[in-house]
Amino acid sequence: MTVQIGTFVALGDSFTEGLDDPRADQAGYLGWADRFAQLLAAQQPGLRYANLAVRGKLLSQVADQQVPQAIAMAPDLVSLAAGGNDLLRFRADPDALAQTFDDAVRTLLMAGCQVLIFTGFDPRFPVLRLIRGQVAAYNMHLRAIADRHGCDVVDLWSMAVLADPRAWSADRLHLTPDGHRRVALRACEVLGVDVAEDWREPWPTLDSPTASGRAAWLAARRMDLRWARDHAAPWVARRVRGISSGDNVDPKRPELLHL
């Protein structure tokens, strides 16, 4: 690894907070950022790490609230992954989001931080596919921003291994523990952190045969209905009431601390 990183601050929403990757002690979530920090610390002894990400945050909230807090810590590396919650509301303008993102990146760079940018995932599940075009447009902006400012990029869209349903939790929005593990390994690859595992490793072969034809279609529709009832409906209800899953939730690591 050529770049020395002694301090790392992660910014964003639920993806970076770590949903749905519960810690072994059930005291909150682990997630890709915690996993990446652990891998980085193995090569950078004494690494200090903060995670300011909070579930449900919009890009403007990340830029207005988390970016100034990060700058105050003067970290070597800042990761920025945000905008997904805006796009999920189906009325977001990718061009306007990109301008806000670019301003945040400029601010961090001017403060002397190295910035690691994350693109959005390729939304493949029913309903979520409706925003696929917007996510693609936003991702093109993010890559352009990275090129313009010389930032490293973790391209989540191109991670074909995440197309497997086993990478996703029941809500279809958050990664499983193994999904987070693979993203952490991808971040290590981008930054040149040596690791023993490969994020491209194929998923294990399923022991039980999968259904086919009409049986498979019916099983998929049952899963869709269960998702709509258990996850989509509560999300819509929160939007109607004007509340967020992140209301009254504090960052899990608000200060730079040793692991």
Q: Can you characterise this structure?
A:
With 259 residues, the chain is an alpha/beta fold. It has two domains: 7-203, SGNH hydrolase (Rossmann fold, 3-Layer(aba) Sandwich), CATH 3.40.50; 212-245. 45% of the residues lie in helices and 11% in strands. The protein contains eight helices and six strands. A six-stranded mixed sheet has the order 5-4-3-1-2-6, sandwiched between helices. α2 packs across α7. The chain is globular and about 55 Å long. 36% of the residues are buried. The mean pLDDT is 90.
Topology diagram in text:
Layout (H helix, E strand, L loop, with lengths): L6 E6 L1 H4 L13 H13 L4 E4 L7 H15 L3 E5 L2 H5 L5 H17 L3 E5 L13 H18 L2 E3 L22 H15 L21 H29 L11 E6 L1
Parallel strand pairs: 1-2, 1-3, 3-4, 4-5
Antiparallel strand pairs: 2-6
